Amino acid sequence: MTHIDQSTVENTLLKMLSADRFARLSGSMERVDLPLRHVLVDSDVPTTHVCFLERGLGSMVVSSIDEEVVEIGHIGREGASGMHVVLAVETTPTRTFMQVAGAGIMVPMETFQRALADDPEMKDFFLRYVHTTVLQLAHSALANARYNMHERLARWILMCHDRLEGNNLAITHEFLALMLGVRRSGVTNELHVLEGVHAIRSTRGNVRIMDRAHDSPRNRLRNNTVGEAQNDDNLPAQLNSPRA
User: Fold this and answer.
1) Which of 137, 143, 183, 197 lies at a C-alpha separation of 20 to 30 Å from 70?
2) Are strands 69-75 and 49-63 parallel, antiparallel or unpaired?
3) What does residue 226 show for φ and ψ, rounded to 5 degrees?
4) Average pLDDT per run of 10 along the chain, which is 244 residues long?
5) CA 9, CA 32: separation in Å to the nearest integer?
């Protein structure tokens, strides 16, 4: 297993750890490619690894009794999959898979749980990260209840943009429909609304951000709630620790 130097890490959580806490995990770390649709957490199956994403986009989804699937959150380079174990939960009914291919750093669950048990402050750090994901879920519920469809779409596009490199987002209409819980045709119509004000340009399998700060009475390509984005810039402040 190749040694991973902390200075080369692109994941925000791992970069924020102090050197000695990073060392608790580094001996078992493994860099892996994460292809499209790769499952990071399967529903109701014991999680074997925590994955700290460095590139790409993970999608957390939940299914109804009649097998309708809706996305409830994202994971990018700011976060990690499998964080339910921090709450002493072995399995989760949600599922996490790669919606945009990338790469990450895997840590065996035994190593991760042992590090948390041996270091309460380290556990507190990851509990604060879990709290930020709960806030994201709360804002998603608010958006679904109060925002127009194009505002919800703009919010989700921005959340993807926060987690991916560059202005081209390799996301399909099918994925956007999953995120918003609507039919694919409805997504196409709302993309046209945002294209009409030159906020984005949508082509097959790609959405290009043209004007992130666009603001007009009907179309807003910006964060619609205060303090919800989990990007690299504001995550340290949310975790309230310059160096965990």
Assistant:
1) 197
2) antiparallel
3) -80, 130
4) 88 96 95 96 95 94 81 90 93 93 96 96 95 86 79 83 85 78 78 84 86 54 44 56 54
5) 13
Return all residues near 52 (Cβ < 8 A) that are at least 6 apart. 9, 11, 13, 14, 79, 80, 104, 105, 106, 107
Measuring CA to CA, how many Å separate 57 from each of 53, 80, 98, 99, 158?
A: 8, 11, 6, 6, 13
Spatial separation of the C-alpha atoms in residues 80 and 121, rounded to whole Å: 18
Closest CA to 153 of 209, 103, 113, 114: 209
Please tell me whether residue 104 adopts helix, strand or coil conformation.
Answer: strand
Burial class (CB in 10 A: 0-12, 13-18, 19+), 37: exposed
Phi, psi dihedral angles at 69 (to 5 degrees) = -115, 135
What distance in Å separates the CA atoms of residue 28 and residue 19, rounded to the nearest whole number?
A: 15
Q: What's residue 222's pLDDT?
A: 46
Task: Supply φ then ψ for residue 57, to 5 degrees.
Answer: -140, 125
Secondary structure of 52-101 in HEC code, one letter for each residue? EEEEEEEEEEEECCCCCEEEEEEECCCCEECHHHHHCCCCCCCEEEEEEE
Amino acid present at 109: M
pTM above 0.90, yes or no: no
